[in-house]
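> example.struct
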């Protein structure tokens, strides 16, 4: 069994390679190439924590453009503790296990925190490439944490950025974000005093917060905007108000997951503002060419991302394969 630490994963994984890999994983999921139950989730009281268990068996990548993902099986165990931000600890921590799907032999155990961080942003980049206007170049990022940083790298790969606006409820984190990220950004970056200031006129919007109540309002959205909503992983949490969801053509990573876990969608449904049919489709269907994406330059498009096990397992298989090729990692014998 090969043990891979976060430093190993970081040396073996790049956003450039990960975006097409996520496109293929999403296509495979939405075209029947993946066996994956909805994640098993448990709230950890009284610590306001969350534990999720996420297995997947990727039978084979479908024919089409992009990398081919061989058959692989794995699972991620992930924790989400929003209060860790005040402790200067990661809010998300995870481990990914990879098995030989033919024998059940454990092949690898690897850090999943970085995989979660990078594959989430790479999935948003895949959705942005598929749904955002081709000329979209004004990016608004709500949040200034780990996901905001990873999403800036991913959005640079998805569209040529002309301007980056950043807002967070903690101004000091925005300033640190700008200081750290401006040297790597391809466009000028601006700190915004409010979420509204960041969003008005933006062409691509990322909500990457730990908010449980809306930080993005539909009244602020410009025609033609695209939104990647990656926070609010619980059915009673939301980052977007009802009007933002109502105005948008909504795409998800998994219909089954979204209708169980996404407060951004479930709460407007409960209010009667939208129905389940307001979900146009899965982003994998758009990537596979079986579902329409943007239909006009005026459409507001929304990708609601909850994260799927297939994304973690496909990424882990890629990391494991490269580790074996390069002799990276530590061998451990359980017998």
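> example.seq
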């Amino acid at each position: 069994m090969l043990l891979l630490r976060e430093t190993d994963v970081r040396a073996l994984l790049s956003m450039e390679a990960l975006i097409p890999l996520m496109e293929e994983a999403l296509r495979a999921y939405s075209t029947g190439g993946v066996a994956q139950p909805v994640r098993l989730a448990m709230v950890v009281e009284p610590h306001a924590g969350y534990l999720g268990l996420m297995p997947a068996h990727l039978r084979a990548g479908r024919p089409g453009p992009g990398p081919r993902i061989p058959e692989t099986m794995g699972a991620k165990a992930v924790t989400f503790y929003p209060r860790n931000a005040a402790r200067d600890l990661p809010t998300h921590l995870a481990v990914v296990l990879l098995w030989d799907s033919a024998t059940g032999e454990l092949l690898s155990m690897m850090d999943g925190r970085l995989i979660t961080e990078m594959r989430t942003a790479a999935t948003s980049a895949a959705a942005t490439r598929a749904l955002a206007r081709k000329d979209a170049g004004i990016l608004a990022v709500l949040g200034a944490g780990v996901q905001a940083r990873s999403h800036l790298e991913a959005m640079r790969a998805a569209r040529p950025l002309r301007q980056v606006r950043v807002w967070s409820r903690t101004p000091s984190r925005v300033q640190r974000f700008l200081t750290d990220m401006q040297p790597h950004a391809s466009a000028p970056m601006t700190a915004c005093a409010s979420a509204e200031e960041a969003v008005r006129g933006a062409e691509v919007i990322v909500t990457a917060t730990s908010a449980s109540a809306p930080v993005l309002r539909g009244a602020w959205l410009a025609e033609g905007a695209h939104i990647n909503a990656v926070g609010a992983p619980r059915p009673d949490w939301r980052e977007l108000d009802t009007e933002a969801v109502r105005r948008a053509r909504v795409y998800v990573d998994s219909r089954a997951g979204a209708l169980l876990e996404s407060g951004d969608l479930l709460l407007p449904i409960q209010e009667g503002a939208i129905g389940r049919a307001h979900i146009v489709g899965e982003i994998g269907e758009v990537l596979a060419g079986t579902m329409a994406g943007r239909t006009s330059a005026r459409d507001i498009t929304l990708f609601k991302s909850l994260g799927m096990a297939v994304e973690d397992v496909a990424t882990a298989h890629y990391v494991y394969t490269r580790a074996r090729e390069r002799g990276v990692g530590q061998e451990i014998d359980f017998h």
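> remarks
The radius of gyration is 19 Å.
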